[in-house]
Amino acid sequence: MAFCCNKTCPANSHLLASDFWRPFKIPKFQYVKKGRFDVSQRASKALAFFGLTTPPYKLDALEPYLSRKMLEMHWGAHHRDYVEGLNEQLKNNDPLYGYTLDELVKVTYNNGNPLPEFNNAIQVWNHDFFWESMQPSGSNMPGEGLLQQIEKDFGSFTNFREKFVDAALTLFGSGWVWLVLKNKEKRLAVVKTSNGINPLLWGDFPIINLDMWEHAYYLDYKDDKGKYVNTFMNNLVSWDAATARMARAEAFVNLGEPKIPVA
Amino acid sequence: MARGAATAITLPCALLPCQGFPGAPESTRLLQWRKRERKFSLKALHAPITVQIELKPPPYSLNSLEPYMSRETLEYHWGRHHRVYVENLNRQILGTELDGLNLEDIIIMSYNKGDVLPAFNNAAQIWNHEFFWESMKPGGAGKPSGDLLELIERDFGSFERFINEFKSAASTQFGSGWVWLAYKANRLDVGNAVNPCPSEEDKKLVVVKSPNAVNPLVWDYSPLLGIDVWEHAYYLDYQNRRDDYISIFMDHLVSWEVVSSRLEMAKARAVEREREEIRRKIEEEENMVDSEAVEMYLDSESEDSEVE
Predict the structure, then answer these.
(1) Contact at 8 Å (CB) between B253 and B140?
(2) Which of A175, A195, A214 sits opposite B235 (nearest CB)?
(3) B171 close to A (CB below 8 A)
(4) What integer pLDDT is reported at residue B289 of this predicted model?
(5) Please, is B22 exposed, middle or buried when counting C-beta atoms within 10 Å of its C-beta (0-12, 13-18, 19+)?
(6) Rounded distance, CA B68 to CA B71, Å?
(7) What is the rounded average pLDDT for all residues in chain B?
(8) How far apart are CA A259 and CA A262, in angstroms?
C-alpha cells in the first residue's frame, strides 16, 4: 500500500501547525504544509503525496489472461491518473494532508457525503488492492484454512464461486466485486459495489476484489464479461494474498476457536 | 419503429400465434385490461400483446462514422451491447404488465419514482442508445442555427460556453453514465396548482449528467442531445482518453439538424401541456362551483321548515 512520504501524526495536530504557520508564509516552501522543522528540509520540493505502487509482477506476467497492453493501459493510464488526480487535489487541501491512504478514504467518504477527493482516493486504494489480489499462474484453490472458512460460510467452494461470478455478471454499470469478511456477522460474504465504493468504508474487511469497470477488461475481452470473470477465478486470483489478508482480518474479527495456521 | 434489420426474437414460435391474434373475445379482454393503462399512450390500445421491442439500426452504415468512431466500435456497441439490452428486455417483460407497452412507457413505469424495477436498466439503455445513434451523423457537427442557436446563446451565454459546459460535464461524470442537453419546462408539482409566473425563462436548455441508465425522461425533461460516456462507447478507439472522444464527438459527429427538430417537438409538447393544464383547471373550477351551489340550496330549505 502507498504511504504518504511524511510521518503521520494525530489527526488534529496539523490543524494547529497550519494555524501557527499562517503568519509566517515563506513562498519558497509553500508546499510544506506542516510546521515541523525536522521534515521541512527533506520535503521542501514535495509535490507528490501518494505514489503509484507497482503491481508485484511484470506487466506481461499475467498473459495470456490479461495482456501486457491491457495492464499498461489499466495500471499505466487509469491507475496513474487516479494517483496524479489525487495528488493534484491534495496540493490545494491542507486539512487532508498527512493521512495514510486507509485513513484518507474514510475521511473523504465522510459517512456517505463524499468530498471531491473521494473518487480518486478510493480508486487508488481499490487498484492497489486489485493488483495484489492477482498473481501470475494464480492457484485455483485456497489453502486449507481459508477453504474451511469458505465452506463453512458458503456451503462449498463451488457455491462461493457461483455467487462471485453471478455478482460480477449482474452488476450494472461500473463497480467492483468483493469477497469480504463481515465484521458484525463474523462471516465471509460476496458483495458487489458501484463505482468506487469499498466495504472497508463500513467496517468490513476486503479479502479479494475484482474490477468490473469496463476499462479493466475491454481491450482483451470486449463485452464478454463472463469469460473475464471466469478467467479471473480460474487463473488469476491470488489465494496466497487472500490468506494473508484473512489472517490480518481475524485480528479484528473473532471467528470463534483460535485458528492454528495450517500450512 | 417498423424498420428493423436484425430483430432479436428469442422466444419459441409456439407462443406467438395465440397471443398476437386480434380475434373478438381476445380483444375485449384486451380492452378491459388496457383500461387500466389508459393514462399511457393511446398507441398501446391498438398494439398486439407481444410487441417485441426491436433492435433499431443506426440511420447510417456501421463504417460511416470513421475515422471518428470506428466500424469495430459500432459493431460491438450496437451489435453487442445494444442488442443484448433488447434481448434481455424482451425476456424480462414477457407476460408481465409491461409487455406490449411502448419503450417510453416501460421506462417511466419501471423507474417507479427512483425505486427501479429490473426492466428499467435494459429499457432505458435501449432508449438511450437509439437516441445516441440518431444524435450523430456522418460529416456531422458544425454549428446549430435558428431557434436552437438562439436558445443556446440565451441560456448559456454563447455557443462556446455551452460546448465547454457540455464537455466538462461529460469529462467529470464518474463511472458509467450519459450527459445530455435537455429542454426543461418548469412546472409546479402540485395537483391543481399552476406556475404563478410562467415565462420564457421557465422553458430553458440545461446540461445534465446522469449515472448508468438514467435519462432525462424520468425527470420529465425533453432530451435534445446525448453522449454515451460508458467506457464501452470509446474504449476501442480512444482507450482512456475520454476528453478526446468528447471533443471529436462535438466537433465531427453531432447532428444539429436532429437536435433542432427535437427542440421543436419539445417546445410544442410544452405548449400543449400548458393548454391542457389550463383546460383542466377551468373544468375543476366549474365542478366545484356546481357542487357548492347545490349544498347551499338544501341547507336553507331545511332551516325554513324548522322555523315553521
Answers:
(1) yes
(2) A214
(3) no
(4) 77
(5) exposed
(6) 10
(7) 81
(8) 8
Interface test with chain B among A212, A223, A225, by most B beta carbons within 10 Å: A223
* Smallest Cα distance from A226 to chain B, Å: 14
At B133, give phi and psi (nearest 5°): -60, -40
The residues that bridge with B183 in the sheet, in sequence order, are: B205, B222
DSSP class of residue B94? T
Q: Are A133 and A241 in contact (CB under 8 A)?
A: yes
pTM over 0.90: no
Residue of A118, A218, A228 for testing the chain B interface, max B β-carbons within 10 Å: A218
- Minimum-distance CB partner of A174 among B84, B121, B175: B175
SS3 sequence of A203-237? CCEEEEEEECCHHHCHHHHCCCHHHHHHHHHHHHE
> What ipTM describes this predicted complex?
0.79
pLDDT of residue A205: 97
CB B104, CB B126: distance < 8 Å: no
Q: What is the pLDDT of residues B93-150, one digit of tens each?
A: 998 888 889 999 999 999 988 889 999 999 999 999 999 999 999 998 789 999 999 9
**CA–CA gap between residue A180 and residue A212 (Å, rounded):** 16
